[in-house]
Each structure stands twice: as C-alpha cells, then as structure tokens.
C-alpha cells in the first residue's frame, strides 16, 4: 500500500468531526484556515462559531467596522490575521463579486493568503490537486523520508513542496490533504508520537535511524527582544479613563490601550512620579501606584513584554475620557483585557 493510501486509510478511521469539514463553502473554510494559523483547534473553535454568527457571509464581514472584527478576534493573538481577514473579505466582494476564486493562483492573490491557505481552499472546496504543506505536513514528510533540510530555509520550503506533490493522492486530494495534516497533529505529533502503532512505521526513516526527536529541522529563531511597558490608567472623580489607539506597523495595530510609557528598564514609583510631574498636564490626587508591583511578563513570538499598570488618579475631569464601564467594549490586547477584568472600580 502506498504512502498516500495509508494516510487516507488512517484518516477515514481517526478523523475528528470538525464543522469546517462538513462544508465546501470557501468562505467558511477560509475563515477556519485563517483562524487556525498559530492557533490550536480547541482554542479556535469558539471564535469560528462566533464569527459565523456575527458575519454569516463574506458580505457581512466586508461591511463590518474594523473595530467589531478586532473585538471578536480579541484573545486569538497575531492580530494582523484579523486585519487581513477583513481586507480579504472586501477584496472578494469588490473584485470577485462575492465569490471566492476557484484557482490556486487567484486565491493566492488575496491579502493574507499564502501558499498553504491557497492550496487548502483550492483542494478542500474545488478538488484542485494542490498539496498543502503546513507544520504538521513538514513533520510527517521530514520524519518518514528522513529529510534534514531546514523547513524554514528557501531550499527546504521548495523541496518539501515538491515532495508533497510527488506523494499526494490527486484523485482524493480533499481527504488526502486533510488526512496528512490530521495525521501530523494526532499520530505523528511533535512530542511523544505514537510510533509503535503507526501505519507508516515500517518505512519511516526517522524511526529506523532513531531521529524522530530530531526531525524536522528548523533554523534558529529570531532573538527575543525584551521591552518594558508602563500603562497609565488615569481615573477622574467620575471614573472616566483615557484610551488611545495604537497606530503604525508594530504589534497590536489599531487596537486600543491605556496611554503607554515604554522604558529601557523597569520603572519604580519614584521614577514614574518624576515622569508624570514633567510630562503630564493633569492635576494628580496622589502619587501613581503600580497595580502590579512585579511586572507581568507577556510573551509574544519575538518579544517579551514586562508590563506594569499604574493607577493615576486626577482631580481634573477627563473631558475626552471614556467611562470605565464602557472600556470593555473596545478591542484591546488580551494583556489589557485581563487587567480590565480584574480591576475593581
């Protein structure tokens, strides 16, 4: 039995029942694929249902305010996915008449849709014989065929795409592509794969050469940057506070936050008091106090944010402030959302 037929047999026996597998609607499949990038199925599932409830069609998503999209996305992280999702919905409506393109090439022209997502939509929805290559597929192919090329190198990306095309089942491409990804997620897992009961174990090079834990190979990651964030949580006598929207191309673009002071090192109360006296025009009722004396360390892919929230009470009325009871309606990073939930006013 060939490699692809073993994958298909395994998949038909072990596949999970997932809502996006019960449809060929490209809108729903595209939505699930974007959400499941960098996100586990169990975490992404509630968001998938909430998005479909709020935006049943691509037209609904295209017409929605960006703030609503970002608010529903809150907690999933990698917010550029949400902004690209919104932009792509507009592209589908404006350039393709509300119908997702049916070819790999046209799908790849959509914002935020790369090789993997274009291949997934084309094969799942339209039976286009295009192989998918995601992290799970890299792992299965690298282990089974004993490939030691780094999966994040140009040569590795090209090689694995060609290998995936060679071994795929073009006649059953929808089930095969879903099958090999499922196989990598469950059977050939990153840690503690089930090699003893694996239908591919007889031909697996990594198992034969005792390299299962060493494959796939990935080049060293980018060095992690440490940043110190100080959020100023202003409160006036009416419990109004100040919010600002993040602009530019950095993290959390277009999300809201409390006024931010970024420092080179952790700030103590004396340093914060000196900063406020020199930089703030507001009359302070008392010295700013750190809500969390020890920084909260929020880990992103290439950054670790050491964060303090400072409660700053003022006798001035914040004319452009936001009532505290309305703060939770704004799309904010999960770090700030957690703080808002815990602060009792």
Q: How many structural domains?
A: 2
Task: Give the SSE string.
Answer: HHHHHHHHHHHHEEEEEHEEEEH
- Helix coverage percent of residues? 40-55%
Question: Mean of the pLDDT scores?
Answer: 93
InterPro entries: A/G_AdeGlyc_MutY, DNA_glycosylase, HhH-GPD_domain, HhH_base_excis_C, HhH_motif, MIG/MutY, MutY_C, NUDIX_hydrolase-like_dom_sf
Enzyme class: hydrolase
Catalytic activity: Hydrolyzes free adenine bases from 7,8-dihydro-8-oxoguanine:adenine mismatched double-stranded DNA, leaving an apurinic site
Family: Belongs to the Nth/MutY family.
Would you mind describing this structure in some detail?
- With 345 residues, the chain is of the alpha+beta class.
- The chain has 2 domains: 3-214, Hypothetical protein, domain 2 (Endonuclease III, domain 1, Orthogonal Bundle); 225-342, Nucleoside Triphosphate Pyrophosphohydrolase, CATH 3.90.79.10.
- Helices cover 43% and strands 12% of the residues.
- The chain has 14 helices and 9 strands.
- The chain has helices at residues 3-14, 26-35, 41-54, 58-63, 66-73, 80-96, 104-108, 115-126, 135-145, 154-167, 173-186, 205-208, 269-279, 334-342, and strands at residues 225-235, 240-241, 244-245, 256-257, 260-263, 289-290, 296-299, 303-313, 322-323.
- Strands 1, 5, 6, 7 and 8 form a 5-stranded mixed sheet that branches.
- α2 (26-35) runs antiparallel to α8 (115-126).
- It starts with a helix and ends with a helix.
- The model has no long low-confidence stretch (mean pLDDT 93).
What's the gist of this structure?
With 345 residues, the protein is an alpha+beta fold.
